[in-house]
């Protein structure tokens, strides 16, 4: 696309020198020949400092809010660099969101889970759907990919590129987890949202947003931009969002989509639902009652895009979980869960959530990372695991250049100093998983903690591909 056309999209006059533009980026390291570089003045860096470097790399123009220096390529001055970045990215990609049904999910907690549930329900309703979330992104084929920089919602060029990939792969819909940072920093500006899902708002990220009111206003942008809102009626902030056409959902407050009679069962949750589509009994293979809210929000969003009551009910019962997050790999006779809890508080939360629905014993497999990654947590992890599980197996978890035995001994020390001996050390993670599953009897729960959906395991001299859920399934198969 010609630079002059992009300038027009920013309401700027044509630059002196026109050229063909191939891409746009805010990151100097990512500039390729033919790209426009948008120089952002951020909290840590001034993108203008990288102008000589990006020209060397082949940038054909620079966009920014004003600069005194001399450049050998056109400099386009704009009132707001981040807005320009988003507008250029959308223009270059041909505004893919306009051709997709887009569901945005925001809120302090539950965004990732609600996004994955919505993805699954839309697919269950036959819509070819893609996803962009903290856990990674998917085109409609369902393969999980990761961005080079770890974000819930990446910067606008990656958002637009992902939406464009989803569309080109035959996608009809996309679910976009939209963090408050993304909304505040224009990463999702220009996305044509059809539905905004609001999960909840509790104090978080106030270092960035300042006050709860400003945090609320950042997230509210999603609702303002969307055509229709799906709002948690049990959230006081959500109840303020009454200007948009919307459906509400909830458990404690009257709502369009409401759940009653919630029961924990070994395979997950069961509850009754009343909704604008009718009433039905729902089964959700997930642990944690807060997931009822996530399921209601996801069902309402999918229904808004055309899913029927039968598709919602049947889809919900077949949800495979969010990869690596309290993911139920097997429900019976032994329940096996994969979760990414790798700190003492998150391990405590995961084990405490599993205890009430564990009929027999709770067995946990856990390690602790090497290198500089918080060595102080090793002994507390050992203590927590042996306090809340009946049996703990300490194993490797990316020990890198730290001797594995040192880590395992430290975890064991934490347990011993608390007067416990209900643990064993199995250095090889595959063997540890096998040992846990072999020990388990019907009614027991095995929690494989720490790795979640990570796809590599780092040892001292090698990095091996890793798939914790596949390892669990392998260990569950009877020996040939
Ligand atoms: C608060 C926040 O989100 N800040 C993000 C923002 O930083 P910033 O505007 O201050 O920019 P900066 O780091 O000063 O850099 C200025 C410019 O120089 C460029 N630069 C900088 C250095 C360099 O070597 N080369 C280079 O080109 C940068 O790409 C940028 O364009 O833009 C940067 C460039 O994309 C981000 O790296 C940075 O994310 C920081 C590291 C971050 O930690 N963000 C987290 C909090 C975040 O966004 N989290 C949410 C999820 C939150 C949740 O709900 O849990 C998310 O969506 O992931
Ligand atoms: N609806 C909810 N209400 C309250 N807590 C929740 C809710 N959903 C999930 N949680 C809690 O928050 C944790 C993270 O859930 P999830 O990943 O879905 O949220 P998130 O908002 O996407 O956070 P992140 O961006 O860090 O992934 C869960 O393990 C659970 O403890």
From TrEMBL:
Post-translational modification: Carboxylation is probably crucial for Mg(2+) binding and, consequently, for the gamma-phosphate positioning of ATP.
Ranges of residues in domain Mur ligase C-terminal: 324-452
Annotated keywords: ATP-binding, Cell cycle, Cell division, Cell shape, Cell wall biogenesis/degradation, Cytoplasm, Ligase, Magnesium, Nucleotide-binding, Peptidoglycan synthesis
Signal peptide: none
SUPFAM superfamilies in the cross-refs: MurD-like peptide ligases, catalytic domain (SSF53623), MurD-like peptide ligases, peptide-binding domain (SSF53244), MurE/MurF N-terminal domain (SSF63418)
Pfam families listed in its UniProt record: Mur_ligase (PF01225), Mur_ligase_C (PF02875), Mur_ligase_M (PF08245)
Top class in the EC scheme: ligase
Post-translational modification N6-carboxylysine, affected residues: 219
Residues that coordinate or bind ATP: 107-113
Annotated pathway: Cell wall biogenesis; peptidoglycan biosynthesis
Cofactors required: Mg(2+)
Binding site for UDP-N-acetyl-alpha-D-muramoyl-L-alanyl-D-glutamate: 152-153, 179, 187
Subcellular location: Cytoplasm
BP GO terms, sorted: cell division; cell wall organization; peptidoglycan biosynthetic process; regulation of cell shape
Domain Mur ligase central: 105-302
Annotated InterPro entries: Mur-like_cat_sf (IPR036565), Mur_ligase_C (IPR004101), Mur_ligase_C_dom_sf (IPR036615), Mur_ligase_cen (IPR013221), Mur_ligase_N (IPR000713), MurE/MurF_N (IPR035911), UDP-N-AcMur-Glu-dNH2Pim_ligase (IPR005761)
Reported function: Catalyzes the addition of an amino acid to the nucleotide precursor UDP-N-acetylmuramoyl-L-alanyl-D-glutamate (UMAG) in the biosynthesis of bacterial cell-wall peptidoglycan.
Family statement: Belongs to the MurCDEF family. MurE subfamily.
PANTHER family assigned to the protein according to its UniProt record, in alphabetical order: MUR LIGASE FAMILY MEMBER, UDP-N-ACETYLMURAMOYL-L-ALANYL-D-GLUTAMATE--2,6-DIAMINOPIMELATE LIGASE MURE HOMOLOG, CHLOROPLASTIC
Listed name of the protein: UDP-N-acetylmuramyl-tripeptide synthetase
Origin species: Deinococcus yavapaiensis KR-236
